[in-house]
Amino acid sequence: MHELSIAVDLVDIAERAAQDANAVRVETVYLRLGVMSGVVKEALFFAYEVATKDTILEGSRLEVTDVPLIVHCATCDKDVELPSIQYFACPTCNTPTTDVRQGRELEIESMEIVTDETETVGN
After folding, report:
1. Which phi and psi angles does 6 have, rounded to 5°?
2. Is residue 73 part of a domain?
3. Which DSSP state fits 1?
4. CATH number at residue 33
5. Per-residue pLDDT tens digits for 34-46
6. What phi and psi, each to the nearest 5 degrees, are found at residue 96?
7. Counting C-beta atoms within 10 Å of the first and last residue's C-beta, which end of the chain has fewer, N or C?
8. Going edge to edge, which strands form the sheet with 70-73?
C-alpha cells in the first residue's frame, strides 16, 4: 500500500508548514487529488490517520477535492474533460490524444490551523 508512504510525506510537508506558521494544531488539510494520480482515495484516508499519530495533525480531517482528467485536443484546439481514463480521445471529435493538462495532481491546497487554543486560521 503505497498510500501510507504518500500519507507520511503529506503529513511531513503539512507539519513543517504548520510549524512555520506557529501552529499548535492542524484542524483540516485540503488536498487536490487527480484521477490519474495513482492514489486510492479510501486507502489514503486510512493511511492519513495512521501517519498523523503523535503529530500536530493528529485528529485533523483530510478533505479531498477530486480533480478530473483534462486533455488538450489538437483538432478542436481546446482542453476537454474525458469521461473515463480508459479512452484517451476527445469526446467532441473522437481524436486520440495524450496531452494531459490536468488529472495527475497530488497537492496540498491549503490547511486550517490553530495558532493558539482560541483561534482557527486558514493557511
Report:
1. -65, -45
2. no
3. -
4. 3.30.2320.50
5. 999 999 999 999 9
6. -65, 145
7. N
8. 78-81, 70-73, 100-102
Q: List, in sequence order, the alpha helices (H) in 1-123.
A: 3-20, 41-51
Give Cβ neighbours of residue 5 (< 8 Å, ≥ 6 apart): none
0.70 exceeded by pTM: yes
Backbone angles phi, psi at 49, to 5 degrees: -60, -40
| Structural domain for 62, as ranges | 3-68+103-114
Give residue-wise pLDDT tens across range 61-89. Answer: 999 999 999 999 999 999 999 999 999 99
The one-letter amino acid code at 71 reads V
Gyration radius of the chain over CA positions = 18
Are 31 and 62 in contact by the 8 Å Cβ rule? The answer is: yes
